[in-house]
Amino acid sequence: MSKCSNCDLWQIPRGFQRASDYAATSVKLLEAINRQVLTLVSDENFEGGKASNQNWPKHSVSASFECTKCGKGFALVVDVDACRGGFHTNP
What we know:
Elements: E1 14-16, H1 19-34, E2 38-44, E3 61-67, E4 73-79, E5 84-89
Antiparallel strand pairs: 1-5, 2-3, 3-4, 4-5
């Protein structure tokens, strides 16, 4: 894993076992976008901080992000049928 002071904290994979895990990460991602740490590259149903702590999104989520400094890619995936998901770096 290459080091980047801009996106170093995002290079740690996160798994979601509860809706609240996804909601917390969703809020942090929106903050990172607003601070221009990450850019939203593609988006399918990303709720951008409006996610519920109690319920999974109604539709599966798939979004791609990119570090504004080094260009490293990241992926957010939520499978609502399996009630889980995660956030990780793109290879």
